[in-house]
Write the structure tokens for this entry.
Amino acid sequence: MSKVVSIKGLHKSFETGGEVTRVLTGLDLVAGKGEMIMIMGPSGSGKTTLLNMLGGIDRPEKGRIRVGGVDILKLDKASLNAYRRDSVGFIFQFYNLLPTLSARENVELGIEMLVPDRAELTERTERYLGLVDLADKMENFPQELSAGQQQRVAIARALAKEPMIVLADEPTGNLDEEREQAIMELMKSLQDELGTTFFIVSHNQRLKKFMDRTLELRGGTLVDMPNGGGGR
Amino acid sequence: MRPISRSVLRKLWKMKWRTVAISSVIAIAMAMIVTGWYAAAVLDESTEKFFEDYRMADLFVEFSDDQDPGDVSAVLDASDDVKHYDLRLVRDGIYDPEDREINAVLIGIDEPADRDVIRFQRREGRYFRSSGEAVAVIGMEDYGVKVGSTVPFEVAGVTIDLKITGLVSSPEYLFTSAYTDYGLPMAGSLVVVYMPLSDLQNVTGGGVNDVVLTLENGGSGEKVADDLERFGTDSVTKRSDHPSVTMMKVGAEKMKAMFPLLGAIFMLIGFISIFMTMMRLVQNDSRYIGVLMSLGYSKMDIARSWVVMGLFICLIGSLIGIFVTFLLTEMIVSVGTAMYYRMDLVYPFHPEPFLMGIGFVMVAVLVSVIVPVYLITRSSVREALEYKPRTNVHTSKLGTGRMSKVTLMGFRNTTRNPWRMLITVLVVGMTIGVAGSWLVMTDSAFSYVNDQIDADTWDLSADFKGQVVADNLSASTLNLGESDVEYVIPYTSMFMSVGGSGKSVGATVVGCDNMSATRDFDMRDGRADFEGAVLTNTLADKIDVKTGDVVSIRKGSAEVKLRITGVTYHSFLSNIYTERKNLQLFYDPDNCTGAYVKLTDPGTSDAAAREVRNASIVSSVLVHKDITETLNSVVDDARAFLYVFFIMNLLITIVVAGSAVILATMERDVEFATLDTLGIPRSKVARSIMAEMSLLALMSSAIGIPMSYMFAGMLAVVMSEVIFYFPIIITIGATITTFLIGAAFVMLSSAVPIRYSGKLDTERTIRERTAG
Ligand SMILES: Nc1ncnc2c1ncn2[C@@H]1O[C@H](COP(=O)(O)OP(=O)(O)O)[C@@H](O)[C@H]1O
Ligand SMILES: [Mg+2]
């Protein structure tokens, strides 16, 4: 299994009102191609911070982050943008859909720069919206969709990119159990077919069975946890 | 201060740039309201000071004939009323560069430097020192009257060559234009030179014929005039009646007259901008208001804390506003006067307009704060706590699938909040309208004035030295060949006192038996029937009469009453036209004092004018073509000036549009951050913003056009009171310029959101704005 992500000695602290919070203190992490990793940890332990750094929207004080063989901390603004565009799929806890674009257009927005061919763009958009079971809601605007449906649009938008890594923050928080299982199956299949690497932040024990590894952020570093169920 | 007020102020500090932005909108609104009024005061005061500094004379006396300076001095020295005086010799002359004759006034004085009466402002070169040298009033350089050149003048049949050593501004000739026959503000139509008195005396005979003097405190001009009466005075002009003074007063009057209208428009614009801004600000904080309510604070407490914030914004806004007012005032007054002379501006202590401006700002801000606070605190604590700034947007399928989704998003964003868009477009459109109204007005006014002049059919108007028997008049008496002229129509023109319902003013009374052949009369009402009197609308309005009324014409004790048969449009002349026989009480109806000449070939009017001028009976000739030319040069000057107003108003467009879009942008920060996480480059985001702004710009500009006509119409009413009447016409040039430049300026304000989105901290935005 080849290494896709390698993080070494990551340090990050925040200063608020003169008080310094050390969030990450020398965090190490290696993830292989097509791995699905769950990150747990109490609120405020730095899970989101870790995802943000992997996605290149925040920087550590110290450490190294290599994704796909590239040291992303050495990239300039434009290359970092390209990195996010080509290699990263974000799934936010609060979906962050664009309210003036329909479900279809939200997905297209994420991939139009990757898929120049219009027919292919349409095909891929419809395929992924179908996969999250929203084939009949493609023309609806976010505000016309339920929370769960919006979350699925956000998931489709990230997955349709078919990125190298997916960074998901509580991706199934608004889904019922059945949907949750279906979405996880979908991610599993992408993992198998495309070798996508997943980092999933969640407290949901039910997700554990889909994971290859479960880590806990504790005291600023990652600690291995026994995996509850399946994996492979 | 209570903790809750303190916390609101701290919030202000935290969003300091936004506070400054909000305050700026307020400041501009305030400045616009205050400037017109204050600028008038500054102009008044500065002019006053200028006239003081440059020793404007209190009395101007011209004698009919040359006098011995010793005699005049003796009288003036004996007077207790006179402080300083200067005896001068003034001669009319002609300056004749190439093929154009320009009137000239040569004034012989003793000493050009440090004068007690009529002091010069030296603009270039030096004063004259010896014989053969002279200084000229600035403004005729284009005609060859410049430092170093030697200029020939024809005076009383002799030619005087004068070497111009310097250019000066003189308070008595600020507006050389105001002295021309046609009453038009003609630039470059008069050369004025000051030269050694003895030089002028040597050429044209000794003596003096002109006195300028200043009075002692409390001195009586009338008494001095009476004292000088024994020398035979041609004219006595008090300082307050001098063209320089009245023209400057008119300028200040104009500004004051326009103030209420412009002020009202900007108050409306300002109020809407302030209200939109503050409303959003309070709404964004409604959850915080809910928290305060849950902590047991009363509505009053909460409202008070917001009022503290409002007052604070008022304070900053007012301070910036005062600063901007001074800036605008300086700009307006200097641009307005730079056309004529260089004047140091005096800023008088004149707090009324400022107090009014600040009062307006306070009311606008407080209403804008209290209304939303009231709306929110009216709900229950729970509702307030759960209040979320609306996330629902108006969705539409605007745009095509072919468009990049980022651009598409830009277009859709235009209508995501239709009400706000409507208000924004209206307000921005209004500012563009105000700007455009200047152009519409200029074009209308000048095309109207041009029409008025084109309505004349004559090419030359000859003024005779005395009265001439009309029947003897022919082409040949004017040195022209019979075949050169299409008509020679005699007229009698006299300046007389004309009265209507109680009021009476000075006006030119033209007696002519073939008046309708000389001009295409455009009647406001009545008929062009010269059996009775036809008045220009300017005059009719001045003396408050209409068709059917009786107008009385007086000279000395003689009075003639005529029935008004019609009122004709003329934008600037105060004339009465009637048949010669109606005026026989004043002069022999067989005689005339001048003639209109229409040439067979109007192209030869310059050459013809030369011939006519040489005719023995002729004293001066007005060439119609020159009026048109002069007018066009005035138009160009005025255009430049009005364009400054146009652009200045558009700066307000930027601020208003900018402040509206920054609000719309700030509430979309999560969206911008999301685009960033999707790897969409800033340039594409910028393009999306441009797409949105261009729609907004086009809509605002489109609305700005009817508004510009509406405002121009309103301003034209004001203008007809202070300058002259003109109807508003549809002008393609002004319309297109307003539309394009207006839209361009709105587009400029897209720099605000583009910069905002570019500087946005993605990580922080996502974390703060989407936290559970
Ligand atoms: N931009 C920031 N400024 C200040 N503090 C921050 C910032 N980002 C995160 N933090 C702090 O770092 C800690 C970790 O945050 P986060 O990564 O969001 O935790 P988690 O996602 O595990 O709940 C928290 O204490 C949070 O307040
Ligand atoms: Mg988190």
Notes: Chain A touches chain B at residues 48, 52, 55, 57-58, 78, 81-86, 88, 90, 92-94, 96-102, 105, 108-110, 112-113, 118, 141, 143-144, 157 (CB under 8 Å).
